[in-house]
User: Fold these one by one.
Assistant:
Number 1:
Amino acid sequence: MTTQFTNRSPFINRQQEIAFLESWVAEEANNILFIYGPKSSGKTTLLYRFVRESLANGNYDIKHFNLREILIVQYQDFIKTFFEHDYSKDKGDVKEKREYDLKVFKLSVETLKGLNDKELDPFVVMKQELLKLNDRGIRPVIIIDELQALEGIYMNGQRELLKELFNFFVAMTKESHLCHVIIASSDGYFIERIYSDSKLKKTSKFLEIDYLRKDDVYYWLNNLKKESAITKYTLTSGQVDRIWEIFGGSCWEISRFLGDILMRAAEGKVPDSVFEEEQKKVLIQMRSLFEDYAYTPKRKAIFHAVHAAMQTDSRFSRSQVFAKLAEPICDEKELYEDLGELVRQNFLAYNPVTATYMVQGRTMEIGLAMYVEMIKEVGKR
């Protein structure tokens, strides 16, 4: 029996992005594809849909790792995360037939032991297994979400795992054409850092996944039963307008809000008083995030400068933020690091292609404006 949900996450109008991915994977493996964009813009959802609908024909060997779900602090964690234990269906000697599945490769117990003991190079083993897949006419596609989880991990105390992994991906794509590699991350600083540090200057492509457009959001909110399985209420035109004003195109935030008001709907509608009360809770929470983080004068000043910069353009550069600082609290290099921390803390999103920032969604923009206004009011007292 199929479970019937009262609120289902939608997948709205990503045909252009799907078409890009289908075109890219149909070509010979020749580059690493970086998928980036603000948090909750739908990167992972897009990849799951792409794999399920476009690559399910048996010609591809798809391995999708979501590292945001896993704690990796050392090399052994990397091995345990990527390898899964599997017993052969052969009823012979189970001890000898046991294998480990890297979700990319199946390795014998002896090979796994060699990897754990650091007697074997995992990248040599990976290449051998990729060659086997290609010899069988199968195209491997490796997809990794939030690869920055591997930062700070070293092999044999000398080799940085992340850098070695990217050098391997370059060899497997541009040089050997053995597999396609997709890296998805909401941390644009991470992508920029890797792009600069590794041999990626002429071996990468980029795909930005932004928030939903206004017409897509309006279509969704006017078709809740079809797209989200919501039957308990319909929204008024004014409520649809208000959701766009507050949440913009952030699919995850809109879905969460639709669930919040679902619990308070009655007689096929959501009273405006309830609707506004729930939205107010969201915005106060966003304001509180800025208030909790800005416990030093420097952080307060940077938030003020970011707010001033975004009045000119929703996407702004580091120089624009620097120019808005009321006092010379830091140089531009130091500001780069401070803004990078705001990216890691999900206050800002960073575009590694254009080197510009944006506040992480409409609710965060409003929350920042509320915080700045609150500080001004406190200063008047």
Number 2:
Amino acid sequence: MSADLLKIERRGAVAVLTFNRPDKRNAMNRAARTALRKALEALKDGTRAVVVTGAGESFCAGMDLKEQALDRETGNQTANTEWRDVNVAIRQHPAVFIAAVNGFALGGGMTLINVCDLAIASEKASLGMPEISFATYPGLAGPSTQLSLSRKRAAWMILTGNRIDGRTAEEWGLVNRCVPHEELLDAATEVAERVAQFDPVALAACKRAIDTIPAAVTDWRSAFDYGELTNAAIREQTEAQKGGLAKFGAGERNSGQGRS
């Protein structure tokens, strides 16, 4: 059943999603993609932070290439569109997504890391785009990596097909932190719990702003204007900003304030 391909654990406003095809390196077949889309919809209500990880030794090995080969034989060419829509849904989701990269993250696994808002890698993580080895440009992993890394570093991964480890991914800025393997899930969950204490309207607005600047807004004045409009929109939807500023002005600490 597709439900068995994705484990969902709820911890208050935090959810942990675990890809559960360890014998296939958590490659995303159609059933797994469908399960993930359904989970994303279900987690729009009351979930503020989502940890994404994989069962076994892999985070996600990308698309299920064997299934894609069968699809081509039958004329079914929807897999790439389906996978693109899943990743776009993560970017458009109001919750903050944290990738807990526990092992192999190849092709589409790289895309998942890139579309997550934050990422923590295990020292055992191995990230790469092998598509050049079969005469293919990584159609989703390539663009998302090029949006995330400098040109030379993105080119290194795309043109050589070489993998990088978790420490290198941290050094390059592809993930926020690299931690010992046994500490990975606790570290990711700790970040998720910190994020989940903040106002959901503000989190969603900040997430949109991070995507908009500098991707669509590139000059300073327009960026500052966008910032003011973002805060005005937050004030229209929630009293949290007003209350938080009042406490700050009175010398009281807000939840999560002042932590490193």
Number 3:
Amino acid sequence: MTIFMNTEYYIKKLNQLFERTEFDESALDYSNLDKHIGFIKQLAIVENSSMSIFDVFQKKYVFAQSKSFSVLGIEVDEMLKLNPQYFLKIIHPEDVPFLTETHYRFTDFIINLKLEEKKNYKVIYVFRIKDKNNQYRWFLNQLLPLELDNKGNIWLMLVTYDMLPDGNNIQKVERKIVNIKTNEIQLFPGDSMEDKKNNLTKREIEILGLLAKGMASKKIADELFLSVNTVNNHRRNILEKTNSENTAMAIKYGQSLGIVE
């Protein structure tokens, strides 16, 4: 079972990142987009890969060239008209939380870099997507900033898509951030199972376990000889650390890690 949770939470967080981005439309030089398209068309042929450009300002795809979209039953012209969230409908349900979290965390990572470093990184991730025959295929995607505006905001994003051959040995979704200049690879903070388990204190795990049994704060307080206020503080910390909007989501997160029955 995948350990990534809270799709709605990360979609909301990603939208908030973009909403805080202030573009000066008059300063966006779309002749740069035309130059990128010319180069990427050739690159896609040489790499035998599918590629698209996402315009963060317009919140839509502005270019796509693909050898694999037809396998998904999507034509290139159709893709350019689709809302990006359409693809969440054809991604494997277990992989959707992973994908939304990955997009949010990578975008947040890039935004907080120094201006001269923002175009030095890409994220690589694998996930499953449904083809036109309702069979799930493994895809390897890469996402990287292609163009910044004059304020250093991410304006254009390049996305590459490669359908992995049948019979590959991938057993679960994976992701990593790569520095494209040094080839240095780094995991997302907290991606290992042990890091996620250690994110919660022993007391928080104990309280989460009691919440999973249906106990209210007053009963938990009596059980652990704590004040109700202390229990509620722990509950708030649990929600924050697990990126959960409610107790049910936090319990599901704990169950996925094997720390809650």
